[in-house]
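Exercise 7 asks you to align residues with tokens for two separate proteins.
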Amino acid sequence: MKRLCCILLSLGLSACAGYEARQHAQMLETAVHDDQACIQQGSKFPDDRYVGCRLQMQDDRLHQDWLNLQLMRQSQQQPNNVPAPYTPREFYRPLNQDHFACALVTEDKRDYVLCDETDEPKKP
């Protein structure tokens, strides 16, 4: 029994590690795609125009995810003849450009520009 628990625990941990590795790889792939798109628009890191481009791309993805969630919730509603219970909706909150920052990160001998919203305001 103890051996079975250890096997199940190790399988669970390896599944979590695999999921996290896929998430990280997807984040890096998105960063490369966004970087190339912003460079094609004529901006380069660390220019403000580049950071604004990356902010817009990330915000567009977040907004699309929010819209998809709203659509999914709407499709799960009950038929019209049955009153649906009140369900509060989360409001979409755009990314705050005053708290959005990009940083150059080297990983596996390759440079990535990673951008995200932070808790601290952007330095002037």
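Second protein for Exercise 7:
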Amino acid sequence: MNEAGGEPNLYVEGVIALVVAAAFVLFAMTLIKERHRDVAQWHVAVGAAIYGAVIGIVVGFVIVPLRMVLMNGHVTPQTAALSGLGLVSFTMALRRGLIGRLPFLGPQVKAYRRALLRRTIEAAQKQLDKLTAPAAAE
């Protein structure tokens, strides 16, 4: 909301959504290496942009306004709790692959998620090797 308490100012929410989407793309282009990908890098970058845009929209247009409304005291705690449960459910659906099932956007999002999962597995394996190396020497 603006200073006068009238109509909402969507510039802040839009900037938040763009920053989150840009962060996803930057992460995908810098940290996801060739060994993690099974398709061209642009597929992974487009998938990261789509995934980041959806997450950014949720953060910018749902979480930030909900926080501002709660801070002003215009919503009862019961309504806020129900909104929070709906938001958590939606976020869980996104994390479970809801975007990957979309007809035109799905292949790029799946490429991004596969590459990210391979990177996560590689990082977890490195941490596991560090934790088990001294035990094997004993």
